[in-house]
Amino acid sequence: MASDVQVAETIAEVRQLVAAARGNGCRIGLVPTMGALHEGHASLIRAAKAEADFVVVSIFVNPIQFGPSEDYARYPRTLPEDLEICRLNGGQSAFVPSVTEMYPEPCWTFTDVEKLSYTLCGPRRPGHFRGVCTVVQKLFNIVQPDLAWFGAKDGQQARVIRRMVSDLNIPVEIRIGPTVREADGLAMSSRNQYLNKAERQSAAGIYQALSEVRRLALERPKTTPVEVEPLRRRLEELLKEIPGARLEYAEFVDERTLQPLDQLDGPALVAVALTLGQTRLIDNVTIP
Ligand code: AMP
Questions:
Q1: Interval 71-112: pLDDT, tens
Q2: CB contact at 8 A, 273 and 216
Q3: Is the dihedral of CA 11, 13, 17, 20 positive or negative?
Q4: Does residue 231 line the site of ligand 1, with CB under 6 A?
Q5: Would you give the DSSP letter of residue 64?
Q6: Active-site annotation holds for 41
Q7: CB-based contacts of 252, cutoff 8 Å, min separation 6
Q8: Where are the beta strands (DSSP E) in the chain?
Q9: Would you tell me which of 72, 121, 165, 176 could form a disulfide with 66, CB atoms 3.0–4.6 Å apart?
Q10: With a 6 A CB cut-off, is 40 part of the ligand 1 pocket?
Q11: What is the pTM of this model?
Q12: Residue range 173-189, pLDDT digits in tens
């Protein structure tokens, strides 16, 4: 049977738990989340458990990564269920700080990763990645993990965090877990629960469109460079056919730099953001 999860509400408490584990020779793993945990998070907790000896799952809806008109207030908060998911998947500790514990005073110090934050979601969510990087850096300072897990689902975020860690010499190894999907291909997300029945059905079209253009890209002959624009237009067309969808972007970018590509001459990330009803959804696939 999975053992109980030690819940820490304060920075001092989680530091104590981690210090005790480290004293026992444990490697510390961190899985940062905003809660409303699902199988995507669970897969990261299990991956962490396979490599680290003591796994901390942080659950914190971070206000500074939400824009003023975004869903901070209504973001789902399901702590009892989250703790059960931690327990069943091998998380030993849950760090569940309040906003005042994390930000006792207005935050005046921020971590900003340039360039990588300037494309895709960056310009559409001003301040978002700055908020993400700042809270992740705070979590790294608080927990001081040896390893930390992020999901490929948030492809830009994963690359931004990797770059922050490398630019700032933060002593943590970053691991990226694959995107976990529903049976119809929709990437799991805490925000999927906002979708009504019709929107939920439409949402499956996102991964279908991404898969279709990946298939088209991969079947092009490798002898001549593959032009991105026709593929990108096809992706846009497919996404615009999704009932009720308002497309934000559909882009082919360099997998490493996240800069837009003209030709598929190296690994690419195909990334999409759109809104269904009130719900903003993102997804991506890579083309090797
Ligand atoms: P969130 O709670 O949405 O901030 O996500 C916490 C972590 O879980 C992030 O690293 C996400 O990329 C990751 N994650 C969210 N959804 C999925 C998914 N469907 N598959 C894999 N990882 C995910």
A1: 999 999 999 999 999 999 999 999 999 999 999 999 999 999
A2: no
A3: positive
A4: no
A5: G
A6: yes
A7: 228, 231, 232, 260, 261, 264, 268, 269, 270, 287
A8: 6-8, 28-33, 54-59, 93-95, 147-151, 173-177, 245-254, 268-276, 279-287
A9: 72
A10: yes
A11: 0.97
A12: 999 999 999 999 999 99
Tell me how far the alpha carbon of residue 223 lies from the centroid of ligand 1, in angstroms. Answer: 37
Minimal-distance CA residue to ligand 1 atom 17: 40
For residue 223, what pLDDT is reported?
78
Contact 54, 31 (CB under 8 A): no
Q: How many Å apart are CA 186 and CA 203, to the nearest integer?
A: 6
Ligand 1, atom 10, residue with closest C-alpha: 150
How many other C-beta atoms are found inside a 10 Å radius of the C-beta of residue 126? 10
Q: What is the DSSP letter of 221?
A: -
Residue 91, ligand 1, Cβ within 6 A: no
Of 42, 13, 46, 5, the closest CA to residue 29 belongs to 46
Would you say residue 130 has pLDDT above 90? yes
- Give me the catalytic one of 38, 41, 153, 214: 41
Q: Residue 246, Cα to own-chain centre: how many angstroms?
A: 22
Q: Are 142 and 281 in contact (CB under 8 A)?
A: no
Contact by Cβ (8 Å): 120, 271: yes
Q: What single-letter amino acid sits at 120?
A: L
Distant-in-sequence, close-in-space partners of 231: CB < 8 Å, separation ≥ 6: 213, 216, 217, 252, 264
207 lines ligand 1 (CB under 6 A): no
